[in-house]
Amino acid sequence: MRAVITVVGKDSVGILAKVSTKCAESQVNINEVTQSVLEDMFCMIMLADISQINKSFGDFSDEMEKLGREMGMSVHVMHETIFNSMHRI
After folding, report:
1. Which residues share a beta bridge with 41?
2. Domains (ranges, CATH) in the chain?
3. The pLDDT of residue 82
């Protein structure tokens, strides 16, 4: 099982470290990361393995959104099945 994690907001030091630390605490393994900075805006998409997650997916998603608010950013976690359903024609 996988999840897509998106992070968007004003660029600052330590964004990747904070997000990856929160993932590690929940036993979520980050498989792929792409990120870019557009002027002062930071954008990141992560593909994460949630097969060993140590809490409910909902709790993890809530914690990541809370982390985003603390950083002044938008952090969103979407389960792979929802992501795939949204992008099928």
Report:
1. 10, 38
2. 2-86 (3.30.70.260)
3. 79
